[in-house]
């Protein structure tokens, strides 16, 4: 059973989910069924494997509902020989699986092209063995993390000291796996029922060479990889356009494919008249008149660029490598090419940000509006959330970000610029999930049924902290202290020498490199400097 923690419409639009499903379906020794929150294929009479693709931290409680719907114990410690092996993958679990670790038997870290087949082959070798033996065998597969074979250790104050194997022969660390082939992924399912109806998605690049210091999509997926135009991209596009006339080019920075200009020229042929082409976010400095013209000709109405901040100082801090004039040029090229809209994305609450930097973002949007009349502008803005395996993993969420979101609304909305802010409150919960360790698992379990509201998450946290009817949740998570201190996880700047919940999981870059990038970004002499706590770290949320 391969599950997705949302509806069919959303899940089938996930390229990662599609690719995993197709990989499983192509194997003669696997009979894969799909499961979504609103529907699913007929279940197996007996299920050996239950997999979940997770790309959003806030979907954790949905995993537990899906397990329960299949009568699978939600806690790994409760499962026996007759229960399926529950495994997961995706960016959330690759970055930091620890808050969800007590629910999984195995977590696949990194790219699935070779990792998933290796996982399945190993499981087939010991299919009839007792469950503990199967888990030990899986732990020997590079990139497969078996949480039950590792234990966290804490000091008397509840601070994490280490996560270590509990028996001999288990690797001390597990490394993310990286696909280095000449092709990347593309859609295996095209359906009008998808959130993006009848679209054929093609992955143009994987990772991003810019290394913005907060960016999980860049740092976690290194190195930057580009498939061959003739042997990878064109065959993938041709395959999809035999079934649909809607094409989506995906990637963190698609225009940085070294042959992207040639791809655009190829798509400019008359035989593609009637084909609608859209691209995901592009680097502003790579927008050209050709890009604007061909996208407009192929049915796109807008272009999306990430500017992070209107302040050049802040863009230097986060390593954006983007000049203000390049932003204005991108807007001109978009308008002159025939596009009618420009969507910009930015952040507030970045490390070292001051209110003047946020004012600079407002001023930039207002200047863009004046310089490119007729171009519809919108700004999507989120609060900075620290992510594992990035240089800013040691930084916390800044409470002043909430006020700065309101400042942008006050400056931009009266001028007719659409502002689409992400909720500060949900960014706080996202940080709770992205920086915690296994002690958060009982909170995730307690949040079931109320996880769709901010108040529900805070109530669940307070209930576990107080021990209110949650002793069974804590015991099933393992021998752990109470939940991590709210402010310490969410708002505190962490010292550079602190043991991190994901230190036993190797990302693409070593810790020393991440700390060097952080020092370069913030201009500090020693990693670990950061803002102090905003309240007593032992205090429960209000």
Features:
alpha/beta; 17 strands; four-stranded parallel sheet; 542 residues; 20 helices; 14% strand
Topology record:
Layout: E1 2-3, H1 8-11, H2 15-25, E2 34-35, E3 49-53, H3 60-69, E4 85-89, H4 91-95, E5 106-108, H5 112-125, H6 131-138, E6 144-145, E7 150-154, E8 160-165, E9 174-175, E10 200-203, H7 216-219, H8 229-241, E11 246-250, H9 260-267, E12 276-279, H10 289-297, E13 302-308, H11 312-317, H12 324-337, E14 341-348, H13 355-371, E15 376-383, H14 401-412, E16 418-421, H15 424-435, H16 441-446, H17 454-466, H18 471-477, H19 486-490, E17 505-506, H20 511-522
Parallel strand pairs: 1-2, 1-3, 3-4, 4-5, 9-17, 10-11, 11-12, 13-14, 14-15, 15-16
Antiparallel strand pairs: 5-6, 7-8
Structure summarized in a few sentences:
With 542 residues, the chain is of the alpha/beta class. It is 35% helix and 14% strand. The longest helix is centred in the C-terminal third of the chain and has 17 residues, at 355-371.
Can you tell me about this structure?
This protein is α/β, with parallel strands linked by helices. It is built from 20 helices and 17 strands. It has a 6-stranded mixed β-sheet with strand order 2-1-3-4-5-6, sandwiched between helices. Strands 13-14-15-16 form a 4-stranded parallel β-sheet. Strands 10-11-12 form a 3-stranded parallel β-sheet, covered by helices on one side. It is globular.
